Amino acid sequence: MTRCLSRGIAAAMLWVAITSTAGAETLTTTVEQYGLLGSWAVDCAVRPDRDKGALLTYEIRKDGRVMYRRNFGEAKDENEVVSARVGAEGLLNVMVYFPSLHQTREFGLLLAKDGSLRAIYNRSERGAYTIRDGKYVATGAPTPAQQRCD
Fold it and tell me: pLDDT tens digit string along 138-150?
């Protein structure tokens, strides 16, 4: 009985290791193929500033994790992308865990034919939107297009 249980546990651990690696490969492949990797800003010539615009960077670490860095000038953070999938009409649905906020946020990004990137939605894990249908919920203003900075 113990031998059977040990084999079952070992098989389960092997399955988890294999599926975790496969999931990581799928995530990295998705962000690479979509063209998300690199740094993005509304205006790459402007230094990062909370009021004037952030520099947002997506990168794959040597350990295979996909990271999302935000640079607001004086404030910076680094967060792990936990999933990314291309959905309807070419929208990239990204989930990022923000340790400082103790939450996962989901946002939809659309890469335009001209190479610009635009946020279509951004919501908390509880479903509270800050961006919906390409507009800021608080003001109704459309989200600006971001340009690749590197």
Answer: 999 999 999 999 8
C-alpha distances (whole Å) from 44 to each of 32, 135, 146 are 21, 22, 9
Interval 14-52: pLDDT, tens: 333 333 344 446 999 999 999 999 999 999 999 998 888
Per DSSP, helices labelled H in 1-150 are: 2-34
Beta strands in the chain (DSSP E): 38-41, 55-60, 66-71, 76-86, 92-98, 103-111, 117-124, 129-132, 135-136, 147-148
Give percent of the chain above pLDDT 70: 83
> For residue 42, what is the DSSP state?
S
Taking the C-alpha atoms of residue 119 and residue 97, their distance in angstroms, rounded to an integer, is 17
Residue 40 and residue 57 in contact, taking contact as beta carbons nearer than 8 Å: yes
Query: Pick from 129, 94, 90: which is nearest to 110 by CA?
Result: 90
Tokens linked to 25 = 């490969």
Rounded CA separation 45/58 (Å): 19
Name residue 13's amino acid: M
Verdict on whether the full-model pTM lies above 0.85 = no
Q: Which amino acid is at 40?
A: W
